[in-house]
Design goal:
CATH class of the largest domain: Mainly Beta
Helix content: 10-25%
CATH architecture of the largest domain: Beta Complex
CATH superfamily of the largest domain: YbbR-like domain
Mean pLDDT: 89
Structural class: mainly beta
CATH topology of the largest domain: RNA Polymerase Alpha Subunit, Chain A, domain 2
Number of domains: 3
Radius of gyration: 42 Å
Number of helices: 3
């Protein structure tokens, strides 16, 4: 029969007893205290088809209980409140924060959470394609004006709460400066949306091109001849007055090449027989310039 010798390794057993006694006295002598900490609130298991609308609380107050030594050694972030959103539905919802869902170090007890209930507004998530509108800042050099501004890509996909998506007209870009420029400007800038509740499906940049063109000039041409068109066979016509003052607008050097006799001013006599008529002066459109005014705009025509 095996016999146990209670005095075997007596020194080691005595040392263990002394250490246990010291540890018990140390712990027993510590005060149990409570402290209130402001800790982060983590949202977990949010359904992919739902969006949180508005600003959910980022922190809560947690009252913890434990020995003063343990609480004094805690580092920021060791206590975190967790809110499980698994199974959440759209609408205004209330979620309870339970002490057993607070992550804390060993030896720390969660006494209370404030607030004990958190309200969240949840909405179905949607996706929509919207145009990209470049943002332009500054003015070009004197004598120059802005032309077309284009962005590549021209559209982007945006994700977010369905109601907020319906109100979104477009995405925009970082401002592209044209200050003092005399030629077309091109820049690569970030695309974004103004509504913080929405986000791009994919982070993207846009190449924005802004035309900077010479400013149009105006020029008056006196004594522009007024001709007739579509005069019936065997008839003659007389126009009073027979010339007009025409003001045109266009760009250099197109305007510099215009002469009074190259402006085709006319009255249309189609279907008119002998008689006296007041007819509108017309000018054929041209890509080189635009007509601002014609004086007189109506002339008297006598057909014989």
């Amino acid at each position: 029969m095996f016999k146990v010798n209670p005095f075997a390794n007596f020194g080691l057993k005595l040392l263990a007893l002394l250490l246990a006694t010291v540890l018990w006295l140390t712990v027993a002598g510590e005060h149990i205290v409570e402290r209130t900490l402001r800790v982060p609130l983590e949202l977990r298991n949010a359904p992919a088809e739902l969006e949180i609308v508005g600003d959910p609380p980022m922190t809560v107050d947690v009252r913890v209980r434990g020995s003063s030594a343990i609480l004094s050694r805690m580092e920021p972030g060791e206590v975190v409140a967790l809110l499980d959103l698994e199974g959440a539905r759209p609408g205004s919802r209330l979620f309870h924060l339970r002490p057993d869902e607070v992550k804390a170090p060993y030896g720390v007890e969660i006494a209370q959470i404030t607030p004990a209930t958190v309200g969240l507004e949840l909405e179905k998530s949607g996706r929509r394609s919207v145009p990209v509108v470049p943002a332009i800042e500054g003015d070009p050099a004197p004598g120059f004006v802005l032309g077309r501004a284009t962005a590549t890509p021209a559209t982007v996909e945006v994700i977010g709460p369905e109601r907020r998506l319906r109100d979104l007209a477009n995405a925009t870009t970082e401002p592209v400066s044209v200050a003092g420029h005399r030629a077309t400007v091109s820049d690569v800038v970030t695309i974004g949306v103004a509504d913080a509740a929405l986000r791009l499906a994919e982070t993207q940049n846009a190449t924005v091109t802004v035309e900077v063109l010479p400013a149009p000039v105006e020029r008056d041409f006196a004594d522009v001849p007024i001709r007739w068109r579509n005069l019936g066979a065997g008839l003659s016509a007389r126009i009073q007055p027979s010339v007009a003052r025409v003001t045109v607008r266009g760009r250099h050097p197109a305007i510099d090449a215009v002469r009074a006799d190259t402006i085709d001013a006319f009255v249309d006599l189609a279907g008119l027989g002998p008689g006296q008529y007041n007819l509108r002066v017309q000018i054929d459109p041209t890509p080189n310039f635009g007509v601002l005014s014609t004086e007189p705009s109506v002339v008297q025509v006598i057909v014989k």
